[in-house]
């Protein structure tokens, strides 16, 4: 809390109308201060200062990113199956960047790797057949 005291002070005033100095004046108990801090909303300055960009992403944002990734993979598979036999395979889609990840944040084994090859038309036809 000391590291982000200014953000905390601003949030206590903004959301609760409580002055952090009330804790020092002993008119605000440590328990009450703890409750107020623990229940600050995700868009508060304190939460953003403490958690960084990850605080801006909620469940809905992660689900939308997953939907976009799955749709991109489905379109890539469709384009791969319906391409001309002699045409170069389409480039594999890149996942939507997630917060806090310098590189693409994908689970182990998910998505194409450097050793994977694009499926041939016959492999895709067998898969969908």
Show the helix and strand layout.
Blueprint: H1 5-16, H2 21-24, H3 30-38, H4 45-51, H5 59-81, H6 121-128
Characterise the protein shown here.
It is a single chain. The protein is mainly α and 129 residues long. The chain is 49% helix and 0% strand. The protein has helices at residues 5-16, 21-24, 30-38, 45-51, 59-81, 121-128. The longest helix has 23 residues, at 59-81. Residues 103-107 have low confidence and may be disordered.
Poorly predicted runs of 5 or more residues: 103-107
Give the integer mean of the pLDDT values. Answer: 82
Number of strands: 0
Structural class: mainly alpha
State the separation between the terminal residues, measured CA to CA: 59 Å
Tally of alpha and pi helices: 6
Strand percentage: under 5%
Radius of gyration equals 24 Å
Major sheet attributes: none
> In percent, how helical is the residue content?
40-55%
Brief description of this entry?
This protein is 49% helix and 0% strand. By secondary structure, the protein is an all-alpha fold.
Quickly list its features.
single chain; 0% strand; mainly alpha; 6 helices
């Amino acid at each position: 809390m000391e590291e982000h005291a200014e953000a905390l002070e601003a949030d206590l005033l903004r959301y609760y109308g409580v002055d952090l100095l009330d804790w020092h004046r002993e008119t605000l108990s440590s328990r009450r201060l703890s409750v107020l801090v623990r229940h600050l909303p995700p868009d508060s300055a304190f939460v953003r200062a403490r958690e960084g960009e990850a605080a801006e992403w909620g469940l809905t944002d992660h689900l939308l990113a997953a939907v976009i990734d799955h749709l991109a993979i489905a379109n890539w598979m469709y384009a791969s199956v319906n391409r001309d036999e002699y045409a170069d395979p389409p480039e594999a889609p890149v996942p939507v960047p997630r917060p806090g990840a310098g590189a693409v944040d994908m689970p182990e084994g998910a998505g194409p790797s450097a050793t994977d090859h694009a499926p041939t038309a016959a492999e895709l036809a067998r898969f969908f057949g």
